[in-house]
Amino acid sequence: MQYLSTRGHPDRKRFCDILLEGLAPDGGLYLPERYPQVDAATLARWRGLPYHELAFEILSLYIDDIPAADLRALCAKTYTAEVFGTPQIVPLKQLEEGLFLEALSNGPTLAFKDMAMQLLGNLFEYELGRRGEQLNILGATSGDTGSAAEYAMRGKKGIRVFMTSPHGRMSPFQQAQMFSLQDANIHNLAVEGVFDDCQDIVKAVSNDLVFKRQHRIGTVNSINWARLVAQVVYYFAGYFQATSGDTQRVSFAVPSGNFGNICAGHVARMMGLPIERLVLATNENDVLDEFFRTGVYRVRPAAETHETSSPSMDISKASNFERFVFDLLGRDGARTRSLFEGELARTGRFDLSQDPAFRDLQARFGFFSGRSTHADRVATIRDTWDRFGAMVDTHTADGLKVARAYRQPGIPMLVLETALPVKFASTIVEALGREPDRPAKFVGIEQLPRRVTVLPADAAHVKAYIAGHCA
Ligand SMILES: *Cc1c(COP(=O)(O)O)cnc(C)c1O
Prior knowledge:
single chain; 21 helices; 6-stranded mixed sheet; alpha/beta; 15 strands; Rossmann fold; binds pyridoxal-5'-phosphate
């Protein structure tokens, strides 16, 4: 399988080359040059496979530069009951007839980012080992991404993580989760500033090409294709659990921010998985809902980006969205380039409302969308608890709220559960008047010793720290 850029660059690359890269050289995102097709016979063969075997079958359609035996071993080592809590890895929970939660949040950091990041850690270690190279991962986090990256990379050979976060601004649980890691290759840098300062520092360091090369700086952000393809697997796993035969259809509802999770659903559907609807849910930061309703994509300035009670969906632009637009426009790289590099860069928006591709988007791609507010979240958490005895987190509540409007008789609706309630306790207390349950392995983590270095909000200090800690 070869990979191309959404902006039309003529080069083609193999999986392991794009694994360690971020953007394509022309600023586009990588996609496979075609989507492998699965037919009913393949689905029948995959039904009933353990999760790690299913992961191997799907990944091997996209990865042909890792020997099959090695890829199989990497999948088996990643998706274990020990790491993900159950043998099914992503068990379905039925709420009522035709409505399910698919649990993606039983990994080490209790959020769905573990599903891909755990595999990425093993792929990085494998590929760096093969090349005899090292990688220093530099990132900025306000919570979920940083902890998922650290738990995936801890103890991995050839890899160090330097994770900046805004000092004193993450939830106490999230701070405890990250800062209690004692692994020598994990470095927590608490920056005296806000999340934007952390992002600016990462950008400044990455733009210093000499420093970047000399210190082998890389990233693990959500535009990495390996993360996306790992997420395709749980759409298949959810489908098999909700159906008994391979002609049945299901719909998925996906709490969305950067469009990574639901983009994996789009890929699964393009491969031929019988998905009826892909329901995209946003919170008050409704950039994506606006696009799917109106055809206008308008990135938001910082002043218009709301801090909400589903913070992992607080985005001003959706970094993976370009992948879908490329497919929507019939894979026209020149046109995608002119939209993102021209119109969007110049005016902060583009408008596809008059494009025929937008007009039959629902029929061709199955996308529907809606938005949810803090009041919706609280009401949904309460209602789900009262009626079904299930406690859901704020992000999953956004998904459930929007899913309601798009259910169809006879077609199971699977809402992706993207985090556990314990990560966002204050809204649970507001909705239910009680603290969320805490999984046993997290009891008392606030009392553990911490490894964190506080630094001024300044790229020079972060560079000096990195230089002093990578041998
Ligand atoms: C990251 C995240 C999301 C958003 O996922 P995207 O892939 O960015 O759309 C939703 N919920 C939780 C809990 C997350 O951590």
